[in-house]
Here is the input.
Amino acid sequence: MYVLADENEITPAALNRLFTEAHTELPEVDAVEATALDGGYGYLSRAYRLNVAWIGAGADAAPRTLIAKLPLPARLGEDNPSALRMFRREAMFHRVVADETPLRTARCWAAELDEESGLATLVFEDIGAFEEFGDDDTISNERVENALSQLARHHALFWNSPRLEEMDWLAYPAVTGVDQVSAERFAKCWPSLVASGAYELSSTQLRLGELLSERLDAVYAALHAGPFSLTHADLHQENLFFDGDEAVFIDWAAAERSNPAKDVAKLTGSCLDPKSVRQIQPEMIRHYRDELARTVQDAASKESSRTGLSAGNVPSLADLERYVHLATCHYLAMMTFLSDMRDFKALAEHPENRTDFTTSRVISACDREEIVSVVESL
Here is the structure.
């Protein structure tokens, strides 16, 4: 395996070796210049834009720029096994799933993975010309609907599929619990969030926090008892680009075998206008379910077995809404725990330095009596 350690190793010879091992049809690289992207630090990697000069047959048609993701050594090592698993997941997604899924992803020209260390180098098409968003931006209702349509078709393909058991590189929180914040841990974090004054909380949100301090473990049990598919599990604004109105889904490092409602909850809860998400989300859930049903109908008319859904197991709207509410509780727990690690007091005293807009939006999405009722019923 051939994994690049830093930008100094991005050379024509290195790229040619990567593309050869990935069996691409790209011509030979003659010269390359790597420029670090502004804000290009991810949780696991550093991103670079590559300006490439090609030679030989096909040089004129080859892409002039590419994006390379290299490991970030400070966060990758034997002392951080969860990070290594995430890097491996993204590489394996592009090796195994990307060409099959009906949703659009950035084309991956090379996904070189060192199985022993867990490190990887990925080279993607450059989608920098597409529209992108920061985590404090709102995405239009129409675009969120389009993204949900794509997700529904993707989820249907892997719905309750035994194939996912063979994908041992996926996270499987129903068994490992890696995404869970226990009720005990949440009960320690939530009072700090409330006391900090960093967020304005309604009586409904306060009640939900009290309930989750006692029943969060039951929330996870109910969520994991539902259907499963291959989920992205981290669909905030910065992981969506738009080519016109078509969504392009990037960063599959958190890919899971889990309840599809997690994707619906995160996408709608973090991307829609927080002032209206409570009113808009129910229709978005309905839209997603309608696309699931259409996928089943289309597959049946074509006598296709590509989807794991059938007319008998398309979930009811009520079931989907319940799972989305449970998944919203999951994201509230995760955002509360992560915000606590960043210090609630600092967030309250220096709001100009806050970068936790996704946390604010998830908290806003929880201001619903329906979610409280679901948790109370557990």
The chain has two domains: 7-125, 131-376. DSSP finds 13 helices and ten strands in the chain. The CA atoms of residues 218 and 342 lie 27 Å apart.
